[in-house]
Amino acid sequence: MAAGTAERSFTSTLLEERTGQDELITWAASAVQTGGSSTTATQLESFFLAMTLYPEVQAKAQEEIDRVVGIGRLPDISDRANMPYMTAFAGNSSAGTLSYLRV
């Protein structure tokens, strides 16, 4: 920040205001970071648990990706219309509700 090369952020904005509440800013920044990381970690945990419990769901999603995309590239947004199972899979894995996607 002192060199002027830091990207603008929640924390840098508050610190630049020089309110003297550095400890409060530290706690607020920590809460923002922790909230975001625990949410992501929980979603990933749920996803891997679901893939362990429902390997047939993973196999069906992989089959659809292979059929639509083939090999040599990753799926992109233009593939979405041709991948209804994968679209539902992705939307519901973040909600932690994969059980209805059983084959």
Q: H/E order of the elements?
A: HHHH
Major sheet size, sense and barrel closure: none
Cα-atom radius of gyration? 21 Å
Contiguous helical run count: 4
Number of domains: 2
What's the rounded overall pLDDT mean?
A: 78
Q: What does the overall shape look like? A: elongated
What report would you give on this structure?
- Belongs to the cytochrome P450 family.
- Its cofactor is heme.
- This is Cytochrome P450.
- The protein is mostly helical.
- It folds into two domains: 8-41; 54-103, no CATH class.
- Helix content is 62%, strand content 0%.
- The chain has four helices and no strands.
- It has helices spanning 10-16, 22-53, 55-69, 84-93.
- Helix 2 (22-53) crosses helix 3 (55-69).
- It is elongated and about 60 Å long.
What is the compact description of this entry?
This protein has 103 residues and is mainly alpha-helical. Helices cover 62% and strands 0% of the residues. The protein is built from 4 helices and no strands.
SSE order and pairing:
Blueprint: H1 10-16, H2 22-53, H3 55-69, H4 84-93
Helix pairs in contact: 1-2, 2-3
Features:
62% helix; 103 residues; single chain; mainly alpha; 2 domains
